[in-house]
Amino acid sequence: MGNPKAFLEIHRQEAGYRPIHDRIHDFGEVEQTLSTRERKLQASRCMDCGVPFCHWACPLGNKAPEWNDALYKGEWEQAYRLLNSTNPFPEFTGRICPALCEKACVLNRFNHEPTTNREDECAITEAAFREGFILPHTDIKRNGKKVAVIGAGPAGLASANDLNLMGYSVTVFEKNEAAGGLLRYGIPNFKLNKAIIDRRIKLLEQEGIEFKYGAAVECAAVSQQLAEQFDAVVLATGTPTARDLKAPGRELKGVHFALELLSQQNRVLAGMEFSKADLITAKGKDVLVIGGGDTGSDCIGTAHRQGCKSVTQIEIMPKPVEGPEDPQNPWPNWPRTLKTTSSHEEGCMRRWNINTLEFLGEDGKLTGVKVQEIDWKPNPEGGRPIMVEKGEPEIIKAELVLLAMGFLKPEHPEYPENVFVCGDSANGASLVVRAMASGKQTAQKVDAFLSK
User: Fold this and answer.
1) Rounded (10°) CA dihedral 278, 281, 285, 291
2) 413's torsion region: left (phi>0), alpha (psi -120 to 50) or beta?
3) Parallel, antiparallel, or unpaired for β 146-150 and 169-174?
4) Helix, strand or coil for residue 329?
């Protein structure tokens, strides 16, 4: 703790976003960066608490006090070594993690100005790449055993990385044309530039991991083929099935899953071309996003950059509590409070307690959505509250509807004992940082199994 008074003398300073009038015209990253001096000052605010709740809250167990102290002292390489000891890909979490550690920070409890851990870890990692502190491991001693990893998302990459460094020969099978999973095909470029992913994949390849793209692996193949060809198999296929909305008119042209838009837009930016009939665009349209989470927010930002006419976001659940504190989930737990993202700031009508009744259209094309305001009443028998009608049905004009209501947890058959399931595929849709933690834990399980 280099400056014991910093948390009293220096206020929290975030890097902030590029101006709205500038950023909505491109897909460049919206977040800005602080100067080196400002970043060191922010790192100095970390109090090195006797009980580091940040460490407790982070699924990866990141040791924020240690690497913040090194950052404050200008020891950038040491800061990265400390950070990378628990986090395999801090350049990802440094951009898109909701920072559970910051909500659990004692300063958040004290004055709602937690240490800027997320931005600090991004700055540390970018400095490490820039200064050449990050080099491929070329001295890995192979143990002669082979492991297949199915899925190149955060969980699969984290598992493959650890297993490779342990000495296993790792082959990653990915159904898409490039690695990253939702990092590449779900998260927009304005939050995570895909060159950041490519840089890490190149490093993993240099360290000996083999990637096979366009290789979709079915569950049956895992038990019948791969489990016999490899000493162990790690399933990290995520949650590929989005939650649908079976309302009348669902078949109308203009109603899409959120990832249909997001993945296609990312592929367009990567140089892929689509026919006019297959292209999903919000240009000149009134857009309705159904679902109030991060995926819905990503749809809003993408719609603006495609040139939409307007965006409305509806959520069937009640509006979260406003302000920094959640009485139902107090510090150091994650507060379920109203979240306003950079995409929301760009313009969006937001509504809660809205139920979708029907998709309306003419000549097979979407023209609007019939919705109704509802309320939630306590269930006298306990369990989930009961939905009751509150207002009269109304119509929201829309030529494009994006369904962003989450994903279904996959069901798995019984696998041979050398098959391990991790990440969202095992636990259901969650955060990138949790997927990475699960991938690392699974790598340890595989190693224990193969070391018997």
Assistant:
1) 100
2) beta
3) parallel
4) coil
Please report the DSSP string for 6-38 in residue order. HHHHS------B--HHHHTTS-S--B----HHH
Q: What is the reported pTM?
A: 0.96
User: How far apart are alpha carbons 44 and 7 in whole angstroms?
Assistant: 8
Side by side, the strands of the sheet bearing 400-403 are: 255-257, 400-403, 286-290, 310-315, 349-352
**Mean confidence (pLDDT) of the chain:** 96
Tell me the per-residue pLDDT of 102-125, one tens digit each, with 9 for 90 and over. Answer: 999 999 999 999 999 999 999 999
Q: What is the mean pLDDT of residues 260-273?
A: 98
Specify the pLDDT at position 1.
66
Q: Measure the CA angle with vertex 110, ends 107 and 111; round to 5°.
A: 85
Token pair listed for 117: 């851990």
Nearest CA-CA partner of 423 in 100, 159, 146: 159
Amino acid at 337: T
Q: The tokens of 69 are what?
A: 């102290």
Enumerate the H helices of 49-104 as residue ranges. 53-57, 64-72, 76-84, 90-96, 100-103
**CB of 167 within 8 A of CB of 140?**
yes
SS3 288: strand
Q: Which residue is it, tokens 């004055």?
A: 111
Q: Which two tokens stand for residue 101?
A: 């550690």
